[in-house]
# Entry
Amino acid sequence: MPQSYIKKILEARVYDVAIESPVDPAPLLSKRLGNQVLLKREDLQPVFSFKLRGAYNKMMKLSREELDRGVVAASAGNHAQGLALAAMRLGVKATIVMPKTTPQIKVNAVRARGGKVVLQGDTYDEASAYAQKLVAEKGMVYVHPYDDPDVIAGQGTVGMEILRQVTGPLDAVFVPVGGGGLAAGVAAYIKYVRPEVKVIAVEPEDAACLKLAMEKQRRAKLSEVGLFADGVAVAQIGKETFRVLRKTIDEVVTASTDEICAAIKDIFDDTRSIAEPAGALALAGLKKYVEREGCEGKTLLAIDSGANTNFDRLRYISERTEIGEQREAILSVTIPEQAGSFKKFCAALGKRNITEFNYRYSDDRDAQIFVGVAVAEGGADRQELVASLREQDYPVLDMTDNEMAKLHIRHMVGGHRPSAVASELLYRFEFPERPGALMNFLTKLGNRWNITLFHYRNHGAAYGRVLVGLEAQRSERKEIGQFLEQLAYPYHEESDNEAYSLFLS
# Structure
C-alpha cells in the first residue's frame, strides 16, 4: 500500500547532496490566472533537477559490498547527473551508459561529476540493455531512474517539503510524469498527510504513458514517444510507480508542445530562470486545469522539476511560445496583387501587432501572404480577427493549429523570382520595433515600386528586420537609394548577395 512509503520518505537520506528547494510565488502568472500559483523550485538543485534525491537515497541503502562493486545506470539526462554526483560524494565508481545521440553538454556534465560515460546504441532501450549486460558480467548494482522503492522514497521528500513549506490552503499540486518516480513519491506522502489536497499528474500529449495505463487499468506501452520533453519521454509507466499512482493521483492532465513552451516563458517571466521542457510540464498542466475548471482564488502548486535544457533549443521554444499562449494567430490570406495592397491589409488588421509577414510574387492577379498577428490570450480574439477579415472580403485560412505550417512552411515561403518579374532589387531594412512599426514602414515606402518579396518576423529585439524585393531595374538604383535615404531607416542593398542569387533570384 502507498502508506508504506511514509516511513521510507521520512527516513530518506537526501540532504547530504540535495537542498530543501524553495517554494516561490509566481505573482505575474497568479494575477493573470486569478489564483495563487506557487512553484517548487527543484531546478535549483546542484544538478538542476530533483533526480539526485532518489539516486542518493538508493545508494545509501546499499551495503558496503554492493557499493564496492560499483553502480551503473542507463540515462541520457538528469538521472545520470544525479547518480554521478551521489557516487562522487560516496567515493563509489559510477558507470553511466548513454545513447550515442546524447547531447555533448550532458555527457560532459556527467564526466565533470566523476561518472564514467559509456556511449552505446542510438536509443535509451539499447543503452539500458547494455547496462544490464554490465550488471550480469561485472556484478555492478543497477540504480533504476524511477521504478525502485528507495528511488521513489527519495523523490517523495519533495512532497514532504511542500507540506512543510505551504502550511495554509493548498488546493492542488501538479507533478510531471515520465516513469512516475517523482509523482509516486509526492502523491503517496501528500495523500497520506493531507488527503484533501488534489495531486494531479501532468504528461506531454505525445508521451502520455500514465494516462494510457489509467484508461486501460494496466500498464501498456506507447507505440511512439515524443522527445521534446526528453526528461519525461517514457513509453511505459513503471511497475511499482503505477501501483502507487493508480491509488493516489486524482487525475492525469496532458499538455501540448506549444503549451509547454508557453509555460517555460511563464516561469522565466516570474523567476528569470529557464526551465527545461519537462521542468515546465507541471505548470502547463496547471494552466490547462485552471482554464478547464474556471477556478478562482485557489492555491495551486506546480513542481518545476529541472533546468537541464540545451541552449540551442531556446530558439524553437521562443518561436512556439506565443502560439502556446494563444497570443498569436497564423493566417494565410489572399490579397490583390497591386500596389498598396499590403498597406490596406495592415489597416484592416486594426491596432493588432503584426508578428510575421512572408510574401513572394507569384502572378499579377492574387498575392498569397503568410502572416502572424498578435491576439489576446484565448481563442475568441483570433476568431474575431478571422471573421473581420472575411467580412472585408479577404479569403483567410487559419493555420494556427497546423503543425506543418508552424514547423516548416513559415520558413519556406518564397522561392525564386518568377519569370513575370523582369528585374528585382533586394533591400534589407531595420526599424525601431514598436506597435505600428510595420504599418509606418509600408506607409513611408508608398506605392512607388511594386513589392515582389517581403519577409518580416518580430523576434522581440529592439529593431525589426525586413527583407524587401522591389520590381526595378538596376539603372534605378540611384533613384531608389535617394528615396530610401528619406525613409530614415538603416538599409543595405542585398541584390548581389550570394544567398539571394542561389535561393531567391
The mean pLDDT is 88.
